[in-house]
Design goal:
With about 70 residues, the chain is mostly helical. It is about 50% helix and about 0% strand. The termini are close together.
């Protein structure tokens, strides 16, 4: 999965049109960044490359780029 594909999946998690997220967006500014989106992100990271991401790691993230780093998306 490419970075763009991963971001498109992230768009879906937070109810945005594909191509909206680019990376520098602040998570606190995303209205739909909810517990359900977090669970979806954990599953997406696992599906992407088997990366296990925990809630405490996600809690330290401030931006979408931070999440991409956790999921090891290049």
């Amino acid at each position: 999965m490419t970075r763009e594909e991963f971001l498109a999946e992230m768009d879906g998690l937070v109810d945005l049109e594909p191509g909206t997220l680019k990376g520098p967006e602040k998570l606190e500014d995303l209205d739909q960044w909810t517990s359900m989106a977090i669970v979806g992100f954990i599953a997406l990271a696992d599906t992407h490359n088997g990366t296990t991401v925990g809630p405490s790691q996600i809690a330290k993230c401030l931006t979408v780029n931070d999440l991409l780093g956790l999921a090891k998306v290049e």
